[in-house]
Amino acid sequence: xxxxxxxxxxxxxxxxxxxxxxxxxxxxxxxxxxxxxxxxxxxxxxxxxxxxxxxxxxxxxxxxxxxxxxxxxxxxxxxxxxxxxxxxxxxxxxxxxxxxxxxxxxxxxxxxxxxxxxxxxxxxxxxxxxxxxxxxxxxxxxxxxxxxxxxxxxxxxxxxxxxxxxxxxxxxxxxxxxxxxxxxxxxxxxxxxxxxxxxxxxxxxxxxxxxxxxxxxxxxxxxxxxxxxxxxxxxxxxxxxxxxxxxxxxxxxxxxxxxxxxxxxxxxxxxxxxxxxxxxxxxxxxxxxxxxxxxxxxxxxxxxxxxxxxxxxxxxxxxxxxxxxxxxxxxxxxxxxxxxxxxxxxxxxxxxxxxxxxxxxxxxxxxxxxxxxxxxxxxxxxxxxxxxxxxxxxxxxxxxxxxxxxxxxxxxxxxxxxxxxxxxxxxxxxxxxxxx
Length: 436
Description:
Layout: H1 6-23, H2 27-33, E1 39-45, E2 48-62, E3 67-69, E4 75-80, E5 87-88, E6 93-97, H3 100-124, H4 127-158, H5 164-222, E7 224-226, E8 231-233, E9 243-244, E10 253-256, E11 261-268, H6 269-279, E12 288-292, E13 303-308, E14 318-325, E15 337-354, E16 359-361, E17 364-370, E18 376-387, E19 390-395, E20 402-406, E21 417-421
Parallel strand pairs: 1-21
Antiparallel strand pairs: 1-20, 2-11, 2-15, 3-10, 4-6, 4-9, 5-8, 6-7, 8-10, 11-14, 12-13, 12-15, 13-14, 15-19, 16-17, 17-18, 17-20, 18-19
Helix pairs in contact: 3-5, 4-5
């Protein structure tokens, strides 16, 4: 006797179970009718459609721009102005150091600046230069008078109206006054150079004093430590009364920006190549991503791939992709795990049936169908990817076939049925596209 095949065992099991369940129906009704009435089943007529295929990858959130808050000046912490684990804004004060030393430095720098400005004003109004210029003017006036005396006596001497001695004295006085003018002019030039040098030195002192005042004011501002960016602040590693050292290796606290939140996940070479072929580029795309959290809840905001690392991991054969998700409620924190769904391909002309229409026995999958004569038949099928709550059927069905979705336990192969359209139960849950 030939051995039964797997398909025949499967059909026999379904038939036996159906007969048993059918025998449990109300015998009195069956006797009154004289025969078992056809069972009512819900069916769906399958048809070909184009469906996107999604892949699911393990993912982890991380802080792309996490910063360590450090002191820029030394000092003792007088106040801590935040609560651990709260959201802070950029520029919000976090710590207040002892301000008194830096306030004193600012006052000293202001005094030095005032002194420098006074020295500059004094240099610009040098008395010595003014005196030298006055002496030069007096010498020039005397020189003019001496020249006039020589000019007046010269014709008188020729006319014997004046003595030669008077003319010689006038010439000597002229030469003396000319030499005096040169000396006074040299003195003015020397005082001018000296005054300019003193003004330059005073101006340099003013600039230096202004720079020292600016440094003192910056240090005073740094004594109040503020948040460099917006995000969630961590625990304080130095408490009130502790010493802040600007060269310390230990930060005061950390801040992580949470909106958007960054996600990293790894894909295989095949998935990455499929992704590149679909987008026709190896650059980040606007293809939406879904994030399933650890509690199996879908994150309400879609994400987008921002960048990839520059090489495939030779040990695992995977490539890391990085994406961002809007996180306005700051519900996601760095270090959380989840699953990312990414569309990797699209199946054209696919046949899909609801998941619960497919039964499995001894590793073989099958569906029950209803033919044109409203009789039940069995089809062995090969399933592919799962799309939402449906299976892609690779083999065993074709467009137009009617597949039983509800009422499988009430029928057996070859039995007549009353087929009604299957109605999908309304649900507020968002369909989750997954690959098998």
